Amino acid sequence: VVGGTPGNSPWTVSIRNREGVHFCGGSLVKEQWVISTRQCFSSCDADLSGYEVWLGTLFKNPGPNDPDKQAIPINKIVCGPSESLLVMLKLERPAILNQRVALICLPPERYIVPANTQCEIAGWGDTQGTGNPNVLNVAKLPIMSNYECKILLRDRLKESELCTAALRISVGACEGDFGGPLACLTHDCWVLEGVITPSRVCASKDRPSTFIRVSLYVDWINKVMKLS
Amino acid sequence: QRSPLNGFQRLKATQLVYLSHQREELSMGVEECARQCATLLDCRAFHYNWQSHGCQLLPLTQHSPQTQLQRNVHYDLYQKKGYVRNCIMGDGSDYRGTQSVTEKGKTCQAWRLKFPHDHRFPILPHNGLEENYCRNPDHDKRGPWCYTTDPAIRHQSCGIKKCENAVCMSCNGEDYRGFVDQTESGIECQRWDLQHPHRHPFLPNKYPEKDLADNYCRNPDSSERPWCYTIDPAKEREYCNIRKCTEKNRHLPTSTNCFRLKGENYRGSVNVTTSGIPCQRWDSQTPHRHHFLPEKYECKDLKENYCRNPDGSEAPWCFTTLPNLRMAFCFQIKRCVDDVEVEDCYHGNGEEYQGTVSKTRKGITCQKWKDQSPHRPQVFPIKFPTVRLEENYCRNPDNDSHGPWCYTMDHNTQFDYCAIKPCAGDKKPSILQNTENVVFDQCGRREDRAESRLR
Q1: ipTM of predicted complex
Q2: Does residue A155 have a pLDDT over 80?
Q3: Do B444 and A201 touch (CB under 8 A)?
Q4: What is chain B's Cα-based Rg?
Q5: How far is B264 from chain A (nearest CA, A)?
Q6: Mean pLDDT of all residues in B12-23
């Protein structure tokens, strides 16, 4: 995260490869389910044995004795509707919820987040010299309406995407944050409204950022959790 | 530091079923079990029961008559390498395989016979002179041999290949699955499933596709060539000597505009990371030092500063030109579309779809709605009597907004959307028009420290 500060985002998880190296982010939506993005995974039926999700730690490289870290193997990957670029990862066992590990709720189906809603992104990705590169960084971003965003992006915006406002300083997701959450505070609840997707620039100023709009896929998410 | 297990080839979750009297199971550790079997001349294999820690010594192997391999999750079957390997290490005097034809195609004479060729080799418990199998009782340099049934040819070599030549390696040997179990300096390899003498991260279960079997040389980390940890505590790991394939490599489809799976065959010229950071040239060691030298990884096409995947990472990547960001993925390169071609279309959400398409977007055949396997459906004809859940046709009984779907015949994919697209001109209402108040019925909460409590 560029332009963020070290912070707390207990639903943000780190996805680790077999060498234990962080490569993408994700969000804990149920004790045994994480949402991330398709780009981070080689296929919809990839053998992810040896891959793990790390939760509860603020450090990018926590020590072996970090008491808060939960490392849970990934059991299964399920790809979302083709245009969604979402994946759900089933964990081998449920995460234990505590002060450092929490679920984030899903938005109501087809819910449109109002413009100016305060949201935040979180991740262990590149900071480009801002924040603290060794810990989880969080940055605040307000929602921008699709109407305004479409004008700024010259029409390159789908309904299945949502935007956060362009800021005067560089704030946004970067390498290693992909798959992580755009969490918005609505009615005193933290809601997973967006998923960070790979974008061509890290946090360029005066330019909105785009995310996958989760509310369009809530029916699929619930169906996967119910049927699997 | 050599483990007695080194002399055995392991078959996981497998039991050897045979007709003769079953031997009793004794409680002991797996290495002790291997030690006992290794010293007993009539022991050729053993079962190890991981549930009861029981050891059962066996006088036969999977190649013995009237035996059969059977899946049993509690058992591992360990067989002496000489009985199951089809290549030889050294002079092959421990070869106990069942080849009985010489290199020129002559049938071997049984060792117990003295005709057509009289000989001086007695059948002893330790020399393995069984049936008419190729053996090397006199440590002949050319390996196992036999007397032939042709009166004109007394004996002939069987031409069994040395393990280092039996299977060749292409590229950097990531796909090497041969049976060499010693390093280039002749040190025996440590088993991948053991953590002594060297602790290591390459647990066989964690890397199923790397085939980290027994103590055979492998290349699970994209090193220059296959290697192994050694049984010498002073030498952690060493390369193995394995023949390079001379024949042309299998032609794998390469791509330049998109990438498939992990993108190991991506050969395009994108040279910036996802967020636009320029890549470091592969033939340069600044700002990041690395071992992916183009000349040592010829098959990986490490040209210029193009995004590549020489190490089986999740996608093409590169070292970046930023000193504080070592590597980054090139996720902006599109994945090649692997969905199958659609054959039909649907209106709305497809809840009225009555067609006969019965495969998913990935081409997997649908499971019949009334069947209970491979998946036990929660949506089935009796529960949805108004929907025609016939055969294995794609349907949308729950009005899924992403279209018709089905349970699939693939064990790993419970359900998936079908190879059908919305009909042309069938426009869904925009969600952006309808932004009325929505009720939140669930909540994500966290404990934020109040600012007043910070100090």
Answers
A1: 0.90
A2: no
A3: no
A4: 30
A5: 11
A6: 84
